[in-house]
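protein under study:
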Amino acid sequence: MKFRGLERLLLDEALDFLSDLKLRMSVEDFMKKLLQAALMLLPEFDRGSVIMKDNDGYYRYVAWVGFGEDLKNVKFPPGKAMIPKGDSPVVIDRVHNWNEINLKDDSLKSLESAGSKEIKKTIAIGIKVEGKIIGGFFLDTTKNVEITEEDLKVVKMFARIASIFATMKIYQERERGYQREIIMAMIKAMEARDPYTVGHSERVARYAVSIAKEMNLDTEDVDRIFWGSVVHDIGKLSIPEYILLKPTKLSKEEYEVIKRHPVAGEEMIKGYPWLDNIRPIVRNHHERWDGLGYPDGLKGEEIPFEVRIVSVADTFDAMTSDRAYRKGLPLSDAIKEIQEQTGKQFDPEIAKVAVKILPEVYNSIYIIRASS
């Protein structure tokens, strides 16, 4: 295959397509998109798959195109996956013959059911991260075709992209681990100043995530809502303790100080680029649907959707939790308050979902509290 005319155009389109793929995609989604692009460039190949090592050392399929769903039942024992160790792709004839020798009955049956017996030739190459092979990229054909050097170069290019993505995903997970540690340290510092708010952020996160999942938000949105909920009150670190812990009603001046915490919280996280996507939650979680909230007086759909979810969850937990100056409301009263504030303080659509699911979530938390 030579990249001239139409083939050159296909290559350019494929690379443009790949440039739009985002790191936020799951490994499974990314690898499937990658396989689809490779098969578009090499039409003589009609199937493809990607396997990657799991935490137990087994290799499992994370993506495939042209095969049946039985591939999800296949696992290759450590050392048994047919992956080249070098940086160059290799051509394998009748890959199923190798599978018959090296795999146990259950995995072999799943491979056969998925269509492995029909494969006549395979191009295989390893996916490498930090110098180690952690997976394999495979293109297969059920046709009698001659595999060219150009074909091998294309597969090598796609395997390189797969390796880069896998590497970035691993680094991303490491970074997230560090981020979680930093965030939780900040929350613990805040809670140490106010014993009445211990566990508040985690409960708000649980309520908000439950609402988000009930509304079928995607994984990225749910993740943002979770971390935004955890961090939403971080600005209270800037509030003097005599105000934060005051056992009686706040004066007008003291309440104005309290109202500064969303802006203060946003300022605190500005130095962390990886928290940019939750800044609206931190700054605007006290906005209201009717525009009477603070600090910006946003109204209706001017308030980001995820902020409206966290707002309901935050208010619900505040109502049902004890504070220095009052006891928490019973569950039924808190639900009634949400209903009464629908279309006023809260987005009507979100409030409707909250009223439906929050009692069950609340009761599960209460059981955990009572048993601890």
Q: What stands out?
A: The longest helix spans residues 149-193.
